[in-house]
Amino acid sequence: MRLLEALCVAKNNGLIHPLDIQFAHMIAGDYQPVLMLAAVFLSRDTRVGHVCLPLRNLCPAAFFSGLHQGLAHMIWESSGNPKDIERVLLACPVVSNGQTVTPLVLEKKSLYLYRMWHNEVIVAQFIQRKNLLLDVEEKKTRKILDSYFDQNNILNWQKIAVAIAITCKLAIIAGGPGTGKTTTIAKLLGVLIELLPVPQRIKVVASTGKAAARLTESLNLTLQKIHRIDLVSRGFPREAITLHRLLGITPGGQRIRFNKDNPLPVDVLVIDEASMIDLAIMAYLFSVLSHHTRVVFLGDHHQLSSVEAGSVFGDLCYNASNHYSLYRAEQLSRLTGYKVIGREDYTHNAISDMICVLPTSYRFKQSSGIGQLAIAVNAGKAQLSIKILNDNFSDVCYFSLKSAADYQHLLDNCIEGYRIYLRLLQAGEKPHKILMAFRDFRVLCTICHGLFGTAGLNEYIEKMLHQIGLIFAHTSWKYPWYIGRPIMIMRNNPALQLCNGDIGIAILDDAREMKVWFLLPNGHTKAFNPLLLPLHSTAFAMTVHKAQGSEFDHVILVLPHQKISIITRKLIYTAITRAKRKITIYADQGVFQKAVSLDILRRSGLLDKLYANGC
């Protein structure tokens, strides 16, 4: 059988996308089977988020994660049972080592699309260039740091994180939910404003509109708590914006607003939810930053990576352990007053000297089920996770999802969760109060289609709410519009100042006209005619991916009744950590265990590039 025919069999079984085959055929034609084999799996891997394809994965055992071995061997034999794949690929004119521009690049036994390789090189070179510690006036810095943190002998990693960030051109602060990342941002900016002699152009950004709005709220609350409102007049930012807005990136637009000759006019750039930034955006960001700009990344490296290819933040945090070189540990000890331990086997000025992991969650007590469940899932402890689900924690509920009765129980629970905001709507409360109530509860799914996906659940929740009279039609609008409909914006619209992920609700205005109301970062509300809205969808149920950057008091997580490879440990962890007070999980126990056991790391060559150059 010819290779193309064998690949079509895999396509018909849903294992390879038609675009993968089209790309491979375009690259290799009909007469280069080894190149076609490599190209089709490179295309597939890139499409699901990997940056490169290690040549060791070009073997039958790795084609389909060890499954479908009969088909895998048929594809291998159809490609001619290749022996020296590296030599064969480098002999192809469309493959190079990166010194010339070719569609594919083969470097260190990994195959890349050229654009992926080029972006990775940009990121690596930036980190190597920026990976320099800064000298500070230590006596003055220690005094300012002490003014922002309680003076005691208990080691405070937030203080160490700030000390790291003010002494680095590039710093990384990682931590799970409730570890105080937003508080750390506010204190870091305050320290910098007091420390640096001239006013700084400071920008605080997040990966999504929803995350930026939440960060804006948190920054202002934290600013009040630390009693430093005076910092606003000295440049402290009161608003966080999206990274796309900062860079001037619009859907379908060309990235030409900034470049190396017209760099981004920012002195201090703080980026929250950095785990959601893909390789292409990170490379563009690094290519337009001025050499003097300080950059601080914050995020949870255990959460889901970006939708597009790459996992730069996760790669950089891969060995994060709060271990530092001897020089760095001594410097941090002098600045903070703590005894920071250094290690002789850690290289001075390496990535480890730029990173601080905030280890303590202030949101969850030790007795908290959510906190224990998140830790167990993150560690891949499937049996312990099941035990926690079945224990009598007040903030963790678990229900099986095997029968029609189980599904009805799920729907009943969803209706109960949304009843509060709909009762407020019927009582004629102000849009602000209704929107705030809607934020307390959310249904999260791991897939989009079917009974257990967002489409099916949104449909059934709507039907039940209509049947019991909690949502109702408007005389001037037809389905899908009705009073009380929650929608999520799916595409940024700078003209309307609406961002992907923003949530609005259809509510009558004072003239009894239906408008869609949104809660703004400053606490005000804004209404739009439904016809003016960008692409949107009903939002009773939303995907875990779309919920990143958001938090809810109570979360219901719904897993499908079959094991699916995209449902992984990071997905479950991300969903659990969206809940602040309660998580309710509907899932088959076997499906949940499989998901917790499955951890798929995105492949890239970034760490190899960095450590090969002494990072």
UniProtKB/TrEMBL annotation:
Gene Ontology CC: one annotated term: exodeoxyribonuclease V complex
Enzyme class: isomerase
GO molecular function, a single term: exodeoxyribonuclease V activity
Binding-site positions, ATP: G175, G176, P177, G178, T179, G180, K181, T182
CDD domains found in the cross-reference section: DEXSc_RecD-like (cd17933), SF1_C_RecD (cd18809)
Residue span, RecBCD enzyme subunit RecD N-terminal domain: 13-112
Signal peptide extent: none
PANTHER family attached to this UniProt entry: DNA HELICASE B, DNA2/NAM7 HELICASE FAMILY MEMBER
UniProt miscellaneous comment: In the RecBCD complex, RecB has a slow 3'-5' helicase, an exonuclease activity and loads RecA onto ssDNA, RecD has a fast 5'-3' helicase activity, while RecC stimulates the ATPase and processivity of the RecB helicase and contributes to recognition of the Chi site.
Designated name of the protein: RecBCD enzyme subunit RecD
